[in-house]
Design brief:
By secondary structure, the protein is α/β, with parallel strands linked by helices. It has two domains: about 160 residues, Aspartate Aminotransferase, domain 1; about 230 residues, Aspartate Aminotransferase, domain 2. Strands 2, 3, 4, 5, 8, 9, 10 and 11 form an eight-stranded mixed β-sheet that branches. A six-stranded mixed β-sheet has the order 6-7-12-13-16-15. Strands 1-14 form a two-stranded parallel sheet. The longest helix is centred in the last third of the chain and has 29 residues. The chain binds pyridoxal-5'-phosphate. The site of pyridoxal-5'-phosphate (PLP) has 14 residues, from helix 6.
Length: about 425
């Protein structure tokens, strides 16, 4: 077939262009189940770990579903309504109401085909050309999740802010929202504010105080605040700092995903928001995909109703990742030692260490290519710093990489050892 290049639309070209997230997912696919399976040390990607105590529970749930012919047949043969199963939505609302005091009902809940799809729908709803011109999505801190970067239906859809950086000794740092600068962003039209909490890639967690201030800012400018809880409370609870779910308010759009508890294949996320937003998200689901995957809802519905999913998150998933995080930090300190300057972002949550190499003489993209040749996959940090003014020259954005600690300790230590050798060599030759 000859190239159809001249036929592609502007939005079609943008969404199908090779982007950071596409490269990342292709590498991940090859490393986890494709040509590189078993040879690549996978420190890229956000795949959850295979936690035996968790997989056992999901296998048990699958067996229960299959053993109940009626339930199984209904699950397989029926399309759900586009907002999700009414029963599941009611269970979700009841869980947040009874355990967190949220004043919500099933009308506040919509299911989507994963968090990624939820964000596509929400950004299409709030970001882009609207009554006030180009309404951009404000990111209070970048680095922010790479998966949002190419989602806008309009180009130049994110307005991002650099964080304030706190240095903690020689080898640790932490990002904070720079509220002084945030106020200036309200001079232009905005559609919503968005943040992941914990943040992928940095492992930063917006504190309860930062969240309260963000809500005040959002309320003042009448903007919804979209929070991505993919790694957070109440499941999978991969959060290692004392921060809480906010109290409920119609200003919030909360997105939760079943992926990081160990069900990424179920492609299921939960949006909790004002009923009008829920209705619109649900209509978009019908337009784009008719209905959602109902397997994830069937597996976790009873677990949400009984409290088992929250208990599993608290007692199995949380300690598992807390230990892996500690192990990865210890391994970095041991392997990197005093061979070259490095800092690790305070790991307050998620599955990643965010490393800052302040004197790295090459770009992290080049480092990524060099490490890939040695069968170590990391994610170059450049991709996570989108939405900044193009004229801003901030060297920090070329000096960070993300490594995943959800893989086995052997993979993590081998990967970090090879990385330390490579970095020492790069430093010696500069
Ligand atoms: C911060 C964050 N949000 C959303 C997602 C999307 O996940 P899913 O579509 O599997 O729910 C991811 C996946 O890595 C993520 O890291």
């Amino acid at each position: 077939m000859t190239s159809q290049e001249s036929h592609y639309t502007e939005i079609g070209s943008r969404l199908s262009a090779s982007s950071g997230i596409v490269e990342l997912m292709e590498d991940l696919g090859r490393a986890m189940s494709g040509a590189d399976q078993g040879t690549m040390r996978m420190l890229g990607g956000g795949n959850p770990a295979a936690i035996p105590g968790v997989q056992e529970v999901f296998r048990r749930r699958m067996a229960e579903i299959v053993a109940n012919a009626d339930e199984c047949d209904r699950m397989l043969v029926n399309y759900d309504g586009p907002a999700g199963s009414p029963r599941f939505r009611a269970i979700v609302a009841e869980m947040f109401a009874s355990r967190f005091g949220w004043n919500i009902t099933a009308e506040n809940v919509a299911i989507t085909a994963g968090g990624q799809a939820a964000f596509f729908q929400l950004f299409a709803l709030f970001g882009g050309h609207g009554p006030r011109g180009l309404q951009r999505i404000l990111l209070p801190i970048v680095p922010e999740y790479i998966g949002y970067a190419d989602q806008g239906l309009a180009s130049n859809m994110f307005a991002a802010h650099c964080p304030r950086i706190e240095l903690r000794g020689d080898h640790e740092f932490k990002y904070h929202v720079d509220f002084d600068h945030l106020e200036s962003s309200a001079n232009e039209p905005l559609g919503a504010i968005a943040a992941s909490r914990p943040t992928n890639p940095s492992g930063n967690v917006l504190s309860d105080i930062e969240l309260t201030r963000l809500r005040e800012f959002a309320a003042k400018h009448r903007l919804p605040l979209i929070l991505d809880n993919a790694y957070g409370q109440p499941f999978p609870a991969a959060m290692f700092t004392d921060a809480h779910l906010p109290h409920w308010g119609d200003d919030l759009v909360m997105v939760f995903s079943l992926s990081k508890v160990g069900l990424p294949g179920a492609r299921t996320a939960i949006v909790v928001a004002h009923p009008e937003i829920i209705q619109r998200v649900s209509s978009m689901t019908a337009v784009v995909g008719l209905a959602n995957n109902n397997l994830g809802q069937a597996i976790v519905g009873p677990m949400l109703a009984s409290g088992e999913l929250l208990q599993l998150s608290r007692e199995v998933i949380h300690p598992f990742y807390a230990e892996r995080s500690q192990f990865a930090k210890n391994t970095v300190h041991r392997e990197f030692g005093n061979r070259f300057p490095y800092l690790i972002h305070a790991n307050e949550g998620a599955f990643f260490l965010w490393l800052w190499l302040p004197e790295l003489p090459i770009s992290t993209r080049e480092l990524y290519q060099r490490l890939k040749k040695k069968n170590v996959l990391v994610v170059p940090g450049e991709y996570f710093f989108y939405g900044l003014p193009p004229e801003l020259d901030w060297p920090h954005r070329r000096q960070c990489i993300r490594i995943t600690f959800s893989q086995s300790p052997q993979v993590v230590s081998e990967g970090l050892r090879i990385m330390a050798e490579e970095l020492a060599e790069i430093n010696a030759n500069r």
